[in-house]
């Protein structure tokens, strides 16, 4: 488990390139009143890697993603991103820095079409405001066209052309999850946070989602941090795994190390989930 990583990164046995540290969480503690959701946790996320966060229900996994995405501000600890300490920020400011996310409970506009939902993912990137649009319609129109083209590329990439006009509320669960991924990708994130992207899916939907996550990582070079309960998926997808239990970190390393880590087996792998 205690493994020395170089500052510049390394190449894995199956040829995956893990780059330098992109995000570093230093001694994070997060409390809700008397409840300690996270206790003194440190870990890093490296450029290009798929980093899994696992642990039993209530371990503090979603809270950790919420700290990274700026939804929660920890009482203690520091968040470093791209080599700089991040001051307390609002979620939209974090999004502007290139961090996008999906939610454990899907957060989409049910009455809006798939296409329009994905467009909302580009809001943080839209430069011209309404007043500018009125004064300088040429630039605004050009921008709108570029945004639409980018969204269409994502729709093709995630193979959801056939539902692009469908209201999200009418879609089955598995497809809603895919649309949520599309919305997050529309922001062209450097770091993508996925909170249980495969929860509640059948085997076929899970396989599709795994493939898309790997493709996003591979083709766009997007760094990914994901929370997942399915250990098969975690072992297949991730380069390194952080294990949490009752708000504490009890393991951190490549999947093979985690599988044989006694504390992890006792706390988590030995019992069934979901
Ligand atoms: N907004 C909140 N207010 C109060 N307590 C919270 C809040 N969010 C989380 N908690 C508490 O913090 C702890 C960690 O919750 P969290 O949702 O981060 O766990 P999790 O590992 O994501 O669990 P799960 O696998 O069930 O999604 C729990 O005890 C939870 O009740
Ligand atoms: Mg959670």
Automatic annotation (TrEMBL):
PROSITE patterns: ABC_TRANSPORTER_2. Keywords: ATP-binding, Nucleotide-binding, Transport. Signal peptide: none annotated. GO terms for molecular function: ATP binding; ATP hydrolysis activity. Residues 23-271 form the ABC transporter domain. GO terms for cellular component: plasma membrane. PANTHER family: ABC TRANSPORTER ATP-BINDING PROTEIN (PTHR45772:SF1), CONSERVED COMPONENT OF ABC TRANSPORTER FOR NATURAL AMINO ACIDS-RELATED (PTHR45772). This is ABC transporter ATP-binding protein. It comes from Falsigemmobacter faecalis. The lineage of its organism: Bacteria, Pseudomonadati, Pseudomonadota, Alphaproteobacteria, Rhodobacterales.
């Amino acid at each position: 488990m205690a493994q020395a990583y170089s500052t510049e990164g390394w190449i894995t046995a199956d040829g995956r390139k893990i780059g330098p540290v992109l995000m570093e969480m230093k001694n994070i503690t997060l409390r809700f009143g008397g409840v300690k959701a996270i206790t003194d946790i440190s870990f890093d996320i490296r450029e290009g890697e798929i980093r899994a966060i696992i642990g039993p229900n209530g371990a503090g996994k979603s809270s950790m993603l919420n700290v990274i995405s700026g939804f929660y501000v920890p009482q203690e600890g520091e968040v470093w991103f791209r080599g700089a300490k991040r001051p307390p920020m609002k979620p939209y400011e974090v999004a502007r820095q290139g961090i996008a996310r999906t939610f454990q409970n899907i957060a989409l506009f049910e009455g809006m079409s798939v296409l329009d939902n994905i467009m909302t993912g580009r809001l943080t990137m839209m430069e011209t405001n309404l007043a500018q649009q009125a004064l300088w319609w040429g630039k605004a129109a050009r921008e709108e066209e570029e945004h639409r083209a980018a969204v269409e590329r994502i729709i093709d990439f995630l193979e959801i052309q056939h539902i692009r006009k469908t209201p999200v509320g009418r879609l089955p669960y598995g497809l809603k999850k895919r649309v949520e991924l599309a919305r997050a990708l529309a922001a062209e994130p450097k770091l993508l946070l996925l909170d249980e992207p495969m929860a509640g899916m059948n085997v076929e939907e899970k396989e599709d989602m795994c493939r898309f996550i790997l493709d996003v990582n591979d083709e766009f070079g997007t760094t990914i941090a994901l929370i997942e309960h399915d250990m098969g998926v975690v072992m297949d997808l991730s380069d390194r795994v952080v294990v949490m239990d009752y708000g504490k970190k009890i393991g951190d390393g490549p999947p093979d190390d985690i599988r044989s880590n006694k504390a992890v087996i006792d706390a988590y792998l030995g019992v069934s989930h979901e």
